[in-house]
């Protein structure tokens, strides 16, 4: 019985150790993915500061629907197009969603600051996992 108990204890401790190593690897990969997303967000945020500043005609720090609808950002700012491409966001989709972003529930125009604009653009990235926020039907 001593041999069977020793074998059981060895296998049980090896199993627990393997589970802990798996959990540790999963945590490390999750943290690395969050760091990559944070770095991407920071880089794109720096690129979009210029884009939002160029869209902001009245220099109030916000972009309104009227300012966004001006087609000049697509023509005059290849940096904006490169910023969208680096995020894997189609600029035409941004234009399609602009009405939803810049109009409130009552249909009244509203303006967005840089952070709100960036959050909405980041939601349009390709290759994201679906979360409960996006998958809710109501």
From TrEMBL:
Query: Which keywords has UniProt assigned to this entry?
Result: Calcium
PROSITE patterns (UniProt xref):
EF_HAND_1
Q: What is this protein called?
A: Calmodulin
Organism expressing this protein natively: Prorocentrum cordatum
């Amino acid at each position: 019985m001593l041999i069977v108990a020793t074998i059981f204890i060895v296998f049980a401790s090896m199993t627990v150790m393997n589970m802990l190593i798996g959990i540790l690897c999963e945590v490390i990969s999750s943290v690395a993915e969050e760091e990559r997303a944070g770095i991407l967000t920071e880089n794109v945020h720096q690129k979009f500061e210029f884009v939002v500043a160029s869209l902001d005609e009245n220099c109030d720090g916000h972009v309104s629907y009227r300012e966004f609808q001006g087609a000049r950002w697509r023509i005059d700012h290849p940096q904006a197009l490169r910023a969208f491409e680096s995020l894997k966001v189609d600029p035409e989709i941004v234009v399609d969603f602009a009405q939803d972003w810049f109009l409130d529930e009552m249909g009244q125009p509203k303006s967005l600051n840089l952070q709100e604009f960036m959050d909405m653009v980041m939601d349009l990235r390709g290759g994201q996992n679906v979360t409960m926020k996006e998958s809710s039907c109501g």
